[in-house]
Design a protein that fits this description.
It is a single chain. The chain is α+β, with helices and mostly antiparallel strands and 163 residues long. The protein is built from 4 helices and 9 strands. It has a 6-stranded mixed β-sheet with strand order 1-2-3-4-9-5. The protein has a 3-stranded antiparallel β-sheet with strand order 7-6-8, covered by helices on one side. A hairpin with a 2-residue loop joins strand 6 and strand 7. The radius of gyration is 17 Å and the shape is globular. The mean pLDDT is 87.
Amino acid sequence: HIFEQHHYKGGHMGGGISYNLALMDGNKIVGGVVVGLPRHEKKYPDSVELRRMACLEEMPKNTESYFLSKVLWYLKKNTNIKTVISYSDLSVGHKGTIYKAANFKEVGRTSPSLHVFWKGVRYHPRSLTIDRPYSYALREAVKTGEAIIEKGEPKIIYAYKLA
């Protein structure tokens, strides 16, 4: 529910999930992080990608930074992972402030992102090629003009060395 309600991409994860970590306040989940293998494993060996991170809006200032530091600590102490990769999506105004504050280093930028918009939902262009029921309808919607494809901004790639 954290991602559905508090992350701009909602709960759409895609790919494999290696770790799903929660930030708790008593018995209440107030934040979450999803970590998985990088989309480009050959380019980033011995790495994981921070796929999603979100906290409730009412959490105190710097909660996200605190949570990120605990996630990095957990990965360093409990895994053989050497590097954590994450992306900041300039198309939605994310510049990576939290990553810069946590000593992540900018290591590059992606090509400009493509987005498919249909029925008020933003889809990754990969949705046009995968074999899922909604994908067939999405492809048809692009053909008819009901869904549109827009070019966005690149994403900033950040890396944090654990070892």
